[in-house]
Structure prediction request, 254 residues.
Amino acid sequence: MVSVKIMPCLDMKDGRVVKGVHFNNIRDAGDPVENAMFYEREGADELAMLDIAATVEGRKTRLDWVKKVLDVISIPLTVGGGISSIDDMEELFKLGVSKVSVNTAAVERPELIREAARRFGREKIIVAIDGRRNARMPSGFEVVIRGGREGTGIDAVEWAKKCEELGAGEILPTSIDGDGALAGYDIPFTRAIADAVKIPVIASGGAGTLEHLYEAVVKGKASTLLAASIFHFRKYSIKEAKEYLRSRGIEVNG
Prediction:
């Protein structure tokens, strides 16, 4: 079994870490540099930094925010939001980013995934899939883009399979129905994608208890656990999360 990784997520807006519920009702969660340093000390395996307003505002990821975080951590950093070209990725990798996460741009031009995987290696390319329940889709889940504002009519599971074929190294599914609600990851959504692909799946959206982390691994088949609210608002520490998972028989990294 692969060692499970813990990945706190810094959702960025106006230079601050924020956290919403169902992609709305944004509240402040602190300074990104302080949070990044704290999570590295705590034992985070990786860190995600998502510029949640970039695509909606029609701009690129703010490189100055990324650089400030990279300057204070040594663990891998994944960056997403506003990445729409090979040049955008090149800039981030030159700064020292370990992986990039693409979402809307990949849906609009799937060939971007293939080009990126060929240029940088598939292990550096994550495709984020934001999904919502839609009974008209074969899997029951529809891909949404632009920060959850726009439906696509694309089946989320079929899209995940296509992303793998094109060269994605990991899939990051987030259920809008569960995001920030602390009611647990959307296990059916996570599991449907994990069952459809061979590449690693990162569980995201809705973790509220340590049991939820366990369920994402055992029931959702995730190999990385992305969480924000439970760590940002200090409900649990990363150490507590890892100790709990170990106590339930899950092999964790570090």
About this structure: The chain has a mean pLDDT of 93. The chain is about 35% helix and 25% strand. The longest strand covers residues 5-13.
